Structures are given as C-alpha cells and as structure tokens.
Amino acid sequence: MRRWQIASFALFFGLWELTGRWPVSPAFPPFSNTFLALIEMIRDGTLGKAYLITAQPLALGIVLCAIAGIAFGIGMGLSRSIEWLSLPVFIILQAAPMAAIIPLLTYMYGIGMGLSRSIEWLSLPVFIILQAAPMAAIIPLLTYMYGIGLTSKVLAVIMLAAPVIVMNSYKGIRNTPPSLLQMCRSFQGTRVQEVVKIVLPHAAALIFTGLRLGLAMGFIGIVIAELLITPTGIGDLISYHSSTADYPKMFATIASIVAVAAVSLHLLQRVEFRLFPRD
Questions:
Q1: What is the pLDDT of residue 99?
Q2: Residue 43: is it exposed, middle or buried by C-beta count within 10 angstroms (0-12/13-18/19+)?
Q3: What's this model's pTM, rounded to 2 decimal places?
Q4: Are 91 and 128 spatial neighbours (Cβ–Cβ below 8 Å)?
Q5: Dihedral angle computed from the Cα positions of residues 106, 68, 263 and 41, in that order, rounded to the nearest 10 degrees
Q6: What is the pLDDT of residues 120-178, one digit of tens each?
C-alpha cells in the first residue's frame, strides 16, 4: 500500500474519531469504539455466522447472473432483431412505473434466449429498466410473490446485478471492430469461428468488467433485501443493533460489509488486470 493511501485512511479514521467525540449525534460513535465492537463481534463469532447466512443468496444470485446474464448479453450483441425489440421496451419501462412486471419479464426472457437476434431485440429494454428502477419499490413485490425466504433475496441480487452484467456483455460484443470480422469472412471463416475466435476474445475484458460491477451491485442488493424482506445475516445485525441503540456494533457491521465488498472487488480487479493487461 502506498504512503498516500495510508495517509488517506489515517485522515478518514481520524476525522471519524473526532466527529464521534464531538459528538455530532449520539447515534454516531467514535472510530475507536466501532473498531473495538468489530473485534468483539469477530471474536464471539457473531459476524462470521451472519456472513455465512448472507453469502448464500449473494453467491447464488451472482452465479446465476454470471451464467445467464453473459449468455443473454452475448445473444443481444449478436442479434440485431432482439436488440431492436428490447431497447424500446427498456426505454419505456425506464420512464413508466413498471416495477410490478419486472419479475415476470425476467422469468419470461430467461436463459434460453442464447445467441438469437430476435431475443436481443425483445429483451434489451428489460435490463435498462432494471438499472433505473428503485430497489425499494421492487422488494415488496418480490416478497408478495415469492415470500420471505431465499428466493426473494436471490432475486433481489439478480435485479441489481443482472442489468450491469448483461449490458457490459452486450456492449463488448457490439464493439467488436468490423475490420476483424471482415478479415475473418475474407478467409472463409464460419459464423461459429467468427464468434469464438474474434468476437468473444475481444469482448472478454468488458464482460469481466461487467462481472466485477455486477458483484458490487449484488452486495447492495443483498443488504437491501436483508433489511427490507426479513432480517437475516448482516441485515439482521444492522437492524438488531439499531433497535437496541448499540451504535458501535451497528456501525461495525456496516463498516465490515463495506470492507468485504471493497476487498472482493479489488481482488477481482487484480484478476481482471492479470487476464486482460491494459495497453
């Protein structure tokens, strides 16, 4: 870690400590109290048990998005007719209060759309609305349709992560240089060879970036789901310590999820740079 990064952290935590000692609010603890609460929660296993519960819907949602989202994005990138159908739908849904039909649309368009241009035309607008729709408006609908169990939480993760993954995959496919495609055709390359040897390798970096951004959105989705659907895992710790006015532990829980998300994204970014070095 560079010196300026250490200095930045020291300044941030120092200001946090001073602000907590002021105090700005009784609900805002100093950094020292929060850090001690974090150590206590790690030692007694409270934090570890909460993350085991939170990790299940987060992992399921991200894996499903990685498989279906990338396949769907590639399909839209390769199919002009699907893009033509989907983009207007997404734009309309983005402007209208259509959150009530998002789960149905997501289910209908599913994984099986593959590489079809017709499906791209049909489905692109759906993922645009998912990027813009307020999550708090969707959560009650998910709870009503799927209950308060694992399914609703996985869908909450998918709702936030899928649009980013799909749109990055789609843009990666669409940004393939036409000159490379022309070269492949001039050497009598088949459509399969064109996709496998040119389109997918060229789009791989942007697809991986979509996965990293999708993971970031997945962390947001799971925390919102655990706070609004039913208090479990990390969301349960935040709600419980807030209701008992144990603010150091509440802030420690929030800080821990921020730290876990930041470390996870940093590790994925390092993998991305290793696989796809920047020129």
A1: 39
A2: exposed
A3: 0.71
A4: yes
A5: 60
A6: 555 555 555 555 556 566 666 666 666 777 877 888 888 778 778 887 888 888 888 88
Position 87 scores a pLDDT of 55
Q: Are 214 and 42 in contact (CB under 8 A)?
A: no
Q: What is the pLDDT of residue 40?
A: 92
Question: pLDDT-derived band of residue 105, with 50, 70 and 90 as boundaries?
Answer: very low
Alpha-carbon gap, residue 41 to 130, rounded angstroms: 35
| Fold held by 54-275 | MetI-like fold (1.10.3720)
Alpha carbon distances (Å) from 76 to 72, 124, 166, 203: 6, 7, 9, 13
Write the pLDDT tens digit of every residue in 27-37: 888 899 999 99
| Number of other CB atoms surrounding residue 243 within 10 Å | 10
Q: Are 31 and 13 in contact (CB under 8 A)?
A: yes
